[in-house]
Specification:
alpha+beta; 30% helix; 5-stranded mixed β-barrel; homodimer; BirA Bifunctional Protein, domain 2; 12 helices; OB fold (Dihydrolipoamide Acetyltransferase, E2P)
Chain lengths: 436, 436
């Protein structure tokens, strides 16, 4: 018999089906046993005799043959999608026996602390509310891809091992590379810029490694970064592209994952009519609204990001807001200063519900200006030879942006910790297991 | 004026257009100057007065305004897609001045040796025949994605930093991870298997790091790996999935990149009616055809792969052939032995035009059998705790396959060296520049 997926049983009332999955929970009621069977599409109640149920217990892999029956009205379970039906089991074949679980996995929510969640990661990921996070994460990437392809970007595959620290700074992981020392890249930034003269418009998914000895709820040592970079563009083109990608990624996630958003009690995002403000304009609005004067601060504080997002929602009915013109000194060396006022830069952040989710800038595309910018940060142009070569031989005006996949997943689902948004998070204390 | 892409000038005869791109070549003919302008969509001839042409030279970024004119019949260039037209230039604005090139980039083929090609990678990638390789590479990945999505696989994002060597073996890169030592993964194999009980079917793109001190034409220290892994499958399901992905990836590449295949003189692949042979059957056919007796060898030799592909093409008109049942000892520990003859395994390779391009197997899914397999290879189950946890709590029958993106790109385009199929290849001697 061909396998029927749990979700497809809804169309097969009165038929005998073969289901394959895991025991999600077992309830013994004297002469009958209820087993909730889980597969990738859902959970369904099956009804067995104690003989058939045998010693089946949670996470056993089982193949069940049975009749799809409508439940009596009063036994309908509105909390699961197959709640109107159940399976009258004819045979149950144990395929793979599970060990006794260290904690209950059969409840609608998984009540374990973060260390336990991560110590048992290859078990806890199976829980439907944990799995939901990563189903949505795959949709974030797919939405990003589709938006990038619509912008006519070509996908590229960049290296993660580098001869020098990508963007300056000491917080890089060192790798023993044959008889030499090399580094894991902090971002694919320099490589994507080098490919503008090749494809003009590129996008990519890559890894970003950050060795800051940080244990905050926002920090991962290894994260997944999504990037776009576009040539022959001015600042306005870049803002349009940034908002196009941000908006369409969120739209795709909403369209394909609205049941997950609903299960997490997340309102569907409003992403049209995105307001644009300079950082100084945003600080002025915050002063007017709250009386708190951050108008001379060199950056938005976390509470400023939250306040300006409240403003955007109230005045523009939009969950996104674009902030531009951050101080040149606060951004990376390749960021183009605003020619009208070089103290501020042609940079931008896209904020979503209180947090920055995409960030980028127009870049310096003149070779000599770029060399000067590298030197002004106390770095040596010698360490950027392959990068500078792209500028030496004719680089058009260009810019781009990037975002962290785990961080955006966290922000969309309002997770408390970015580690919950990484399948196997790496941090200062953990590589699958706690480092001793 | 809005920019017109080179390819779109074909529809604009008699109109004035703004083109943006690079000087691909310059030819001075007394009172007129020809400049071939290149952008991401093609090359077009422009005609300028010496005054307008000024000192423009190869790789300068230039914005050109001019009239699109049909060329006289006898001046049509059949070798470029815009060969029937040219641009009568009205103005030329230099946007970014390029330094003098170290070698000619304006010819249809780039005649430089591999070290030169790589020493100037951020320049040489611009050459249309080099760029073609990576346009096709992006199509390989897109074709793989579409096939994987059709198989209902969920995309996953797996870590590259690991606490222990993934699949045994000493040839791993060691990374200084805060106060600890960690390793770069040899493949995402163990992680994708751990996600079968979560999503049942997964696919991913990731990095594979191999520290073999090898300088062959097939070896990269860092490569891009594409993977699928499927649960609730038997050996036949896996062969079907393998061939579905292999066939449809090649079909997508042929459909979207046939002009590139034509430029590289590569015949379009025949991918239907893929024959299946066990390794022993293949060796027998090779003996019958060539008189060379490899029927007791534990693997196919490179010349065997070429011969059996010739056989597949001659007898089945197919550029692909699936080989199964390699000796258990020759495959990784997680490979399931054939229950009918455990000396051979439920493994498979998909060969394409003389070389293996996809490889995989049915996996051992029983926890205790897997522990025994690890121990039988002299490894410690302690190093596989998170992996084994996935099997301890109920793993269905499962298997999968993977392929190297650069290697498949190399094989499709018949490149001489896999380094040509990596944007920025990492090998024993090179990280962008030659390691001293």
């Amino acid at each position: 018999m061909v396998r029927t997926l749990v979700i497809d049983t809804l169309k097969k009332t009165g038929q005998t089906v073969l289901l394959k999955g895991w025991v999600n929970a077992r309830r013994d009621h004297g002469k009958i046993v209820f087993i909730d069977l889980r597969d990738r599409t859902g959970i369904i109640q099956t009804v067995l005799s104690p003989e058939l149920a045998g010693s089946l217990h949670p996470e056993d892999v089982v193949y069940i043959t049975g009749l799809v029956k409508l439940r009596p009205e009063k036994l309908i379970n509105p909390n699961i999608s197959t709640g109107q039906i159940e399976i009258e089991v004819q045979s149950a074949e144990l395929i793979s026996k599970a060990a006794e679980l260290p904690f209950d996995m059969g409840s609608p929510t998984l009540n374990v602390e973060l260390p336990t969640l991560l110590d048992h990661r290859s078990l806890t990921l199976r829980h439907p509310t944990v799995r939901d996070i990563f189903t949505l994460q795959s949709a974030v990437y797919q939405g990003f891809r589709e938006a990038s392809l619509k912008l006519k970007c070509t996908e590229i595959f960049t290296p993660t091992i580098s001869a020098s620290a990508t963007e300056g700074g000491a917080e890089v992981f060192k790798v023993q590379y044959y008889d030499h020392s090399a580094f894991m890249v902090q971002s694919p930034q320099l490589y994507k810029q080098m490919l503008v003269p090749v494809f003009e418009r590129v996008f990519l998914m890559s890894k970003a490694y950050r060795a800051e000895p940080s244990v905050t709820t926002r920090h991962l040592s290894e994260s997944t970064q999504l990037d776009c970079e576009l040539g022959f563009v001015n600042f306005r083109d870049l803002l349009d592209a940034l908002e196009f990608v941000g908006k369409n990624t969120l739209k795709y996630v909403t369209k394909t994952c609205h049941p997950i958003l609903d299960r997490f009690n997340i309102p569907h995002p409003n992403v049209d009519n995105i307001p644009r403000l300079t950082m100084r304009e945003a600080q002025k609005i915050i002063l007017d609204r709250t009386g708190i004067d951050h108008t001379t601060e060199p950056d938005l504080m976390p509470e400023d990001e939250r306040e300006i997002c409240r403003w955007a929602l109230e005045t523009h009915n939009c969950d996104l807001v674009t902030i531009t013109h951050f101080p040149t000194k606060k951004r990376s060396f390749y960021t183009a200063p605003d020619p009208k006022n070089p103290e501020f830069s042609l940079s931008y952040d896209l904020l979503f519900r209180g947090m920055e989710i995409l960030s980028g800038s127009q870049r310096i595309h003149d070779h000599d200006e770029l060399v000067a910018a590298i030197e002004s940060r106390g770095m040596s142009p010698q360490n950027f030879k392959m990068y500078l070569m792209a500028f030496k031989y004719g680089m058009p005006p260009e810019g781009g942006f990037s975002f962290g996949l785990e961080r955006l997943t966290m922000q969309i689902l309002k997770l408390a910790n970015v580690r919950e948004a990484s399948l196997f998070p790496r941090d200062m204390e953990r590589v699958d297991f706690r480092l001793s």
